[in-house]
TrEMBL record:
UniProt keyword Lipid metabolism present: no
Summary of subunit composition and partner proteins: Homodimer.
Job description of the protein: Catalyzes the oxidative decarboxylation of 6-phosphogluconate to ribulose 5-phosphate and CO(2), with concomitant reduction of NADP to NADPH.
Positions of NADP(+) binding: 10-15, 33-35, 75-77, 103
Name of the encoding gene: gnd
Lineage start: Bacteria, Bacillati, Cyanobacteriota, Cyanophyceae, Synechococcales
Protein's name according to its UniProt entry: 6-phosphogluconate dehydrogenase, decarboxylating
Length: 472
């Protein structure tokens, strides 16, 4: 049998779909999974009658691959990746290339790229987004490592990726762990948009008294607009419309209100804090998940801490797409993208990643979880001004902010009066109000710091560094 073009390790949700995608695009494959029973099951099922062979062990796996070998690891992130690298390294030869397609922490990838390249192997850390369906039909992919290593997989990933009007949803991201860094920030934005839609749902349900179907109808209207047309709005409509087969009621109401997380949202926020990037909407979404996990405490606290009773306020009518609520959702989604792009810009300079922000917006336009029509506007904004410090001051986005800010403020005020938490909406409002305020009150913070700790301050009326003996 002739040698296979491509090897895959890890026949999980993503791996099995990616290998079917590669095979459909003309790349014969060999697959290996730690638990061999899964390989057998795959080859008898979805992988049958295809140019896909199985391997029982890693020696057999590498022997079945053409050289230089291109091997995609699609397994659990963390120590599993190091374990597989250690297990397979003795069988690799100069020029062979390992690709980590999982959600690895970017600093782990930095280390692995350096280690593997020093042994004359190639190593690519490649963020992949699109879930199971995207992996099969065409994901968005964010590969980082050396340019030479990328060139060895370019033809493969360009064919496998989702295609949009201006090309495949994959491009060379940059050196080291940059591909995984960009995927991490993608997921931070994803956390933000998910929480924003959850807040809109909570208000429609608790203030508007709407049913799942009524809410789904609003989401359908939003999905038809340039500002909100997106994959996450589309699947939220589906989630809200779906009924429990047991009793025909809204299935979403039967789901435990505790959101899981696997790390990328946390890493986005930690990186932002380390780099001095302001990402409050994304942070609020992460904290929303943390708070959601405190279910027992929340049940107790509900009996002890009494806020105001739910009061109705104007969310708009479903006939006009719930205009103020839509304002809140639009601006909060824009803030999530703006914060993510700003984090990328700052990280690019700090880590010498040389990220090309218009290209990142381009490869997010299809295949990935945060794909949306807005990404075309984001691409245009960074093409028009590659040094744009914040998306929200681009003329098209600024017009949206100026028009929709009163709606966002109205929703946040109403939610506060009604005692309903809207962490992403309120963080977005504070973010925009802070960003558009030329003089903030941190002059007083500086005064306090100088007062207790002689930390000194600058003045607005003269040059220099000053200290005042504030006490006595
Ligand atoms: N699911 C999704 O929507 C997305 C997931 N990702 C990322 O892709 C990666 C894979 O995710 P997914 O396909 O969902 O994962 P699954 O949980 O479906 O599968 C995990 C795979 O990892 C293998 N594995 C786990 N530990 C080890 C180990 N120590 N050594 C060797 N193999 C191991 C498992 O093998 P075994 O069968 O033997 O247990 C299995 O093949 C993760 O990093 C995930 O974060 C990225 C984008 C989207
Ligand atoms: O990478 C993904 C999508 O882009 C994965 O689905 C990831 O698991 C999502 O993150 P979390 O599980 O923390 O919500």
């Amino acid at each position: 049998m002739s040698k296979a073009h491509f090897g895959l390790i890890g026949l999980g949700v993503m791996g099995e779909n990616l290998v079917l995608n590669a095979e459909r695009n003309g790349f014969s494959s060999v697959v290996y999974n730690r638990t061999y029973a899964k390989t057998e099951e795959f080859l008898k099922g979805l992988g049958s009658d295809k140019a896909i062979q199985g391997a029982k062990d890693l020696q057999d796996f590498v022997d079945k691959l053409e050289r230089p070998r291109r091997i995609l690891m699609m397994i659990k992130a963390g120590s599993a990746i190091d374990a597989v690298i250690e297990q397979i390294s003795p069988y690799l030869q100069e020029g062979d290339l390992l690709i980590d397609g999982g959600n690895s922490e970017f600093r782990d990838t930095e280390r692995r790229v350096a280690e593997l390249e020093s042994k004359s192997f190639g190593y690519i850390g490649m963020g992949v987004s699109g879930g199971a369906k995207g992996a099969l039909e065409g994901p968005s992919m964010m590969p980082g490592g050396t340019k030479t290593s990328y060139e060895a997989i370019e033809s493969l990933v360009c064919k496998m990726a989702a295609q949009v009007e201006d090309g495949p949803c994959v491009t060379y991201i940059g050196p080291g762990g940059s591909g995984h860094f960009v995927k991490t920030v993608h997921n931070g934005i994803e956390y933000g948009i998910e929480q924003i839609l959850a807040e809109a749902y909570d208000l429609m349900k608790r203030v508007g008294g709407m049913t799942g179907t009524q809410m789904a109808d609003v989401l359908a209207q939003w999905n038809a607009t340039e500002e909100l047309s997106s994959y996450l709005v589309e699947i939220t409509e589906v989630c809200l419309r779906t009924k429990d087969p047991d009793d025909g009621s809204d299935l979403v109401e039967k789901i435990m209100d505790q959101a899981g997380q696997k790390g990328t949202g946390l890493w986005t926020v930690v990186s932002a804090l380390e780099l001095g990037a302001s990402v409050p909407t994304i942070y609020a979404s992460l904290n929303g998940r943390v708070m959601s996990s405190m279910k027992p405490q929340r049940i107790t606290a509900e009996q002890i801490l009494h806020g105001s009773a739910i009061k109705p306020f104007d969310l708009g009518s479903s006939a006009d797409g719930m205009a103020p609520l839509m304002d809140a959702v639009v601006l909060s989604c824009m803030a999530s993208y703006a914060q993510g792009m700003e984090l990328l810009r700052i990280a690019s300079a700090e880590y010498n990643y040389n990220l090309h922000l218009p290209s990142i917006a381009q490869i997010w336009k299809g295949g990935c979880i945060i794909r949306s029509r807005l990404l075309k506007r984001i691409q245009d904004a960074f093409n028009a001004d590659p040094q744009l410090s914040n998306l929200l001051i681009d003329p098209w986005f600024a017009e949206q902010v100026n028009r929709r800010l009163p709606g966002l403020a109205k929703v946040v005020a109403g939610a506060a009066e009604a005692g309903i938490p809207v962490p992403c909406f309120s963080s977005t409002l504070d973010y925009i109000n802070s960003y558009r305020t030329a003089r903030l009150p941190q002059n007083l913070v500086q005064a306090m710091r100088d007062c207790f700790g002689s930390h000194t301050y600058q003045r607005v009326d003269k040059e220099g560094t000053f200290h005042t003996e504030w006490l006595d």
